[in-house]
Amino acid sequence: MWGLLLALATFAPAVDVGLGAPSTSVLGLTSPATTKAPVPTPRSSPAQPSAGKENGTSEQHVRIRVIKKKKIIMKKRKKLTRPRPPVTARPSVTTSPAGTLDLPEKQEPDCPPLGLESLRVSDNQLDASSSQSFGLGPHRGRLNIQSGLEDGDLFDGAWCAEQQDAEPWLQVDARHPTRFSGIITQGRNSIWRYDWVTSYKVQFSNDSRTWWGSKNRSSGMDAIFPANSDPETPVLNLLPEPQVARFIRLLPQTWLQGGASCLRAEILACPVSDPNGLFPEVPVLGSSDSLDFRHHDYKAMRKLMKQVNEQCPNITRIYSIGKSHQGLKLYVMEMSDQPGEHELGEPEVRYVAGMHGNEALGRELLLLLMQFLCREFLRGDPRVTRLLTETRIHLLPSMNPDGYETAFHRGSELVGWAEGRWNHQGIDLNHNFADLNTPLWEAEDEGLVPDTVPNHHLPLPTYYTLPNATVAPETWAVIKWMQRIPFVLSANLHGGELVVSYPFDMTRTPWAARELTPTPDEAVFRWLSTVYAGTNRAMQDPDRRPCHSQDFSLYGSIINGADWHTVPGSMNDFSYLHTNCFEVTVELSCDKFPHENELPQEWENNKDALLTYLEQVRMGIAGVVRDKDTELGIADAVISVDGINHDVTTAWGGDYWRLLTPGDYMVTASAEGYHTVTRSCRVTFEEGPVPCNFRLTKTPKQRLRELLATGAKVPPDLRRRLERLRGQKN
């Protein structure tokens, strides 16, 4: 155990550092204070160059008496007596004579990330000089990793060195010769503590024993890189000269006063050729599909959708469901053999992505999916051909285009965990739909469901439709879209985890943070979730580690949304209670905004899952409810399944789809003015849906109303039936 005893050889004039702005003049740079956290005190190492005189600070020496196992080591270190605020890093290409970095205005990373955030770098490739605990070990030093709720558990939000570690370092083994070009850092993610590094050095090695540092071009001294001034903002530093090595180390030099040396990082690195084959072959991230694997801003997305429409005009249609707060259109790509019309008996399905603008993978997957479906249809692929001839598919790649533009312009590695999540008004769209759960559950508690209050198609609450209600234009656009089209199945694509969550998303117990809250269709939702998770390559990888603080692989990579964390006003719950549509949320990747070079692999991870999930719309029963006399379809007829307290209704042509797992069911069709009809329907494991049609007969009163409305005479048989009914009533 190290013990530190500071003895000042000379004393500088008193400096007030109590509640002042945090500062670091060791970098030779200053900026306004950006945090109310405690003041960072610079910490220097014996090799640290002086930067104080050039910036008007006075230098004083501090003797540090280090006692270790009865040995006393005397070291001289420099103390800065006029601290200045730490700054977040800007590009580092030129240097100052003092060894600190003179930074140009802007930097662009020239190499992709090594893969700490995306988990391509495994835990055993990370090492450190020390760790405060297992939960703060080197395996937690990944960019954007999120901590658990309990401070000090196994899932903390950074790597943190021990307090007494005099020379802390975090090390990454690339396993192959690699061209390192830059580093991105964050502080510790925690709701209880403030910890971040304000400056660091970088070293390299080929054998993890002999190390050399990143040097300033002009002075030849070790470069000191400015790091973070808050826990969450990613800070990028490019190396003055890229270095080819196998190992890289980050050596924190200063950190927040009263805090610890804690950081999360991503390494920018390009692979280097290995002509002699001395190292194992580097896994190649790729796909055999020739698609446009890059991130698309609003203009590029619109252009790509237009290209797909021009390539496949007979099976595609582009339409807009509304506009964002900033006026960007919410474009949808419809794909069907008869685009633009609802065909009787053909189910409608949708994918929605980009509800959170910084979760970009879903957006790109839908753009890739529309390219793939178009190309494979032209090639005559039987699976795709059947999908497009038997299903009407709607793809909304960007529900929150304003948020995405913010995230896109920051860049995939620098957007952080939350920037761009909300729409331009600061509204989280996944909490912005009407809460229909509460009125339903209150009615159930009072015994009013389903006789007085329906268990389906609950109306919008009055407060939600008031002019001053806080409802985003993007939310309204999607609600009207849901009301316009009889969707049967949907998935809402998110990012930041690897799991499929299903309704209910809101806990039934008020104020409960999490609680298992199943719907009456628990079996169907678990089936749907398992289908996606079971065909997703990443979710089925037995060697994958948890993204953040929960290992969902223990539960088949699916979870009830409310049992994860409560989400009042979610789109999933609203879709289930306000329409016929069954919707789940798919968390696609640990990395919300993966780098472009990872898109081919992410497409391969999700391609089969996206197709297989669409095919689940055939699961269950389907049919048409018709008038027995006219053979016309009956709109808004109610389809009830015995034992499941949730009904669906027919579309305007009388057609319906009811998702069910295999089994025998008693199904009832009812409509106003008609006699109710019940029949048995068997759902098998064979690919369906199973036909289950109904013909309803009008009640005598309904027939009488229609005849009197047209001025026709009442037929004798109807007159006799009405007389019998009156006699029974008397």
From TrEMBL:
Biased composition (Polar residues): 24-34
Stretches assigned to the F5/8 type C domain: 109-270
InterPro entries, alphabetized: CarboxyPept-like_regulatory (IPR008969), CARBOXYPEPT_ZN_1 (IPR057246), CARBOXYPEPT_ZN_2 (IPR057247), FA58C (IPR000421), Galactose-bd-like_sf (IPR008979), Peptidase_M14 (IPR000834), Peptidase_M14_domain (IPR050753)
Pfam families registered for this protein in UniProt: CarboxypepD_reg, F5_F8_type_C, Peptidase_M14
PROSITE patterns with a match to the protein in the record: CARBOXYPEPT_ZN_1, CARBOXYPEPT_ZN_2, FA58C_1, FA58C_3, PEPTIDASE_M14
Active site positions, chain numbering: E587
Chain segments annotated as coiled-coil in the UniProt record: none
Peptidase M14 domain sequence ranges: 294-617
Alphabetic keyword roster: Carboxypeptidase, Glycoprotein, Hydrolase, Metal-binding, Metalloprotease, Protease, Signal, Zinc
Necessary cofactors: Zn(2+)
Family (UniProt): Belongs to the peptidase M14 family.
Protein name: Carboxypeptidase X (M14 family), member 1
Organism name: Rangifer tarandus platyrhynchus (Svalbard reindeer)
UniProt lineage: Eukaryota, Metazoa, Chordata, Craniata, Vertebrata
